[in-house]
Design a protein that fits this description.
Largest interface: A-B, 96 and 95 residues
Order of helices and strands of chain A: HEHEHEHEEHEEH
Enzyme class (chains A, B): lyase
Function (chains A, B): Catalyzes the reversible hydration of carbon dioxide to form bicarbonate.
Number of domains of chain A: 2
Cofactor (chains A, B): Zn(2+)
Catalytic activity (chains A, B): hydrogencarbonate + H(+) = CO2 + H2O
GO molecular function, one term (chains A, B): zinc ion binding
Oligomer: homodimer
Radius of gyration of chain A: 19 Å
Strand order of the largest sheet of chain A: 2-1-3-6-7
Chain lengths: ~190, ~190
């Protein structure tokens, strides 16, 4: 079966057991938001105990505090009333295995998927590639805990972020499912 | 109990039933990615039938094809091998209820949460506000189906997106849980 049909089939089953969820309100019932990574192994609803309607979930490559993540967070509180935020990176994140230089080089060689070896990603595809990757900041990570603190700090210092919103910095451990507090993130994310 | 303690308590229960999930591989097992909205009512793992390890999930305010969403999608296929993508907006999206002008005006008045009335959002907070909102494109939505098609097209036309990746455009109906195909999105998202 194709991926599309698998998704639509799974959706039919979800619709059949949908119950009263159609009555949920637009603003998150539990008043908080989570920024986390797109990684397939992470299910924030499961690892943080969210039911439909509870909390905003923002996800991108690396759980980085990109301009777009901040756009989403500001909408989340200003229009929909969240008052507490989590930044949750994770162990074994793909963003730790490459650099801007490496990504730009890979993309310049081909647009096919690269392979991952002990030395990092290497290209196996056929060209043509594209130079467009040189114009993108890939927001890679070289130090996990430091990246969490920097992301928390970037959000904390943003002029549109109210001073009274606590921002929690955590790492999700993909090996155990555990949320680990990042030393130093508490101070960086403390409400002003 | 505080939100933080609730999340950590839920996480403990998840860890206790974690099973063999610590052995999941980094690349998504089912080779696809979903771009969807941060809305609290959406649980893409549930509405699309995803288990941990299956697929990348990217989320932002509106499920928009922002530069950051495209950064994440390009990493998703180039480094981690996804070959099929979904763009899934939803009904009753908050992004339909305001405009850049309205958001900038609200933020300039105060940084507290606004209220939603029949005429849209209105400010109830005390100043000071900030002019910083004038420098952000909030990526609001005025026509739901058109926005899906535009997002699919923006991704389709991006120079770093390989021509053979299908991109599916859908709307999740929050009233029923159903995924509805957007007329015209199929053509816009077809592999070249």
């Amino acid at each position: 079966m194709s991926v599309l049909n698998e998704v639509l089939d799974a959706n039919k089953k979800y619709v059949d057991s949908f119950g009263e969820k159609g009555k949920l309100a637009l603003p998150p019932a539990r008043g908080f938001a989570i920024l986390t990574c797109m990684d397939a192994r992470l299910d924030p609803a499961k690892y943080a105990g969210l039911s439909e309607g509870d909390a905003h979930v923002i996800r991108n490559a690396g759980a980085r505090a990109s301009d777009d993540a901040i756009r989403s967070l500001v909408i989340s509180y200003k229009l929909l009333g969240t008052k507490e935020w989590f930044v949750i990176h994770h162990s074994n994140c793909g963003m730790e295995f490459f650099t801007d230089v490496a990504m730009r080089d890979l993309l310049s060689k081909s647009l096919e998927t690269a392979a991952l070896g002990s030395e990092g990603f290497y290209d196996v595809g056929k060209g043509p590639g594209s130079n467009e990757g040189a114009y993108i900041d890939w927001l890679t990570i070289s130090d996990r805990d430091k990246a969490v603190i920097e992301d928390v700090q970037r959000i904390r210092r943003h002029p549109l972020v109210p001073s009274n919103i606590p921002i929690h910095g955590y790492v999700y451990e993909v090996e155990t499912g555990k949320l680990l507090e990042v030393p130093g993130a508490k101070q960086a994310g403390a409400a002003k």
